[in-house]
Amino acid sequence: MKILTIGDIVGTNGCEFLREKLPSLKKEKCIDIVIANGENSAQGNGILPSSAEYILNSGVDLITTGNHVYRRKEIYDYLEEDHPLIRPANYDENNPGKGMYILDMGSVQVAVINIMGVVYMENLENPFMCAERMVELAKNEGCKIILIDFHAETTAEKRALGFHLDGQISALFGTHTHVQTADEQILPNGSGYITDLGMTGPINSVLGVTPELAIEKLRTNMPVRFLNPDTPCMLNGCIFEIDKITGKTISVERVNIV
Q: Which of 39, 75, 105, 211 could pair with 68 as two cysteines, CB 3.0-4.6 Å apart?
């Protein structure tokens, strides 16, 4: 089974570029499932029901998120409905949304879990303990393939969780930094791994933001309204080929489309 995971989709341009490139990519690579991080898909920041629907209608099977998931209040009710959209599982259990979604692929059940890091981020439940709990829950549901989007700031936290779960999950892919890393690999016990998928959005930007605005913010420490530049885009991601019998990764291929 081939699973395409796509880095943080940024703004309207990122959404439109996804819709333009995804169909041919799925066909060329014989993709079975597409998972994309959409927490920045709304113009400006966050995710809206309209941007979530646009992503799903473009060929994505499941949307993961991160620390911007609650930025737009319009998404709260949508998170509570039965949509393939999840938020980090280590937020409070009473928050809108769920941290895991199970995709029924007929011959196999695929669990997708969203976890958020805590180093330089929010003070949430320990991601290692949360991941252990969620993986056990997925196994109890009969899922042979288990994937984790670890939305975290630091490389060390991501790699540590990857090795901690090696052999217990099919793959762990990092999101949040918007810069694709070149460390895709199969860990010693068979779990696929990449520190960060990267971003789907404007190439000539600072993590999707117009460079001049990001520079102004960093130079002056004054409030700045971030905008997404209308420039050529890229699609970053990673393809994990997974054995449906063992649940282990067979191959890993980094994706960068411009």
A: 39
- Tens digit of pLDDT for each residue in 169-208? 999 999 999 999 999 999 999 999 999 999 999 999 999 9
The residues that are catalytic are: 68
The H or E element that residue 216 is part of is helix 211-220
- The pLDDT-based confidence of 228 (bands split at 50, 70, 90) is confident
CB-based burial label for 81 (10 Å; 0-12, 13-18, 19+): exposed
CATH of the domain at 233: 3.60.21.10
Residue pair 138/146 in contact (Cβ under 8 Å)? The answer is: yes
Burial state string for 212-243 with b = 16 or more CB within 10 A and e = fewer than 16:
ebbeebeeeeeebeeebbeeebbbbbbbbbbe
Task: Find residue 246's DSSP bridge partners.
Answer: none
Domain containing 235 equals: 2-257
223 vs 128: which has the higher pLDDT? 128
pLDDT digits (tens, 9 = 90+) for 95-109: 999 999 999 999 899
How many domains does the structure of the chain reveal? Answer: 1
Interatomic CA distance for residues 72 and 76, integer angstroms: 8
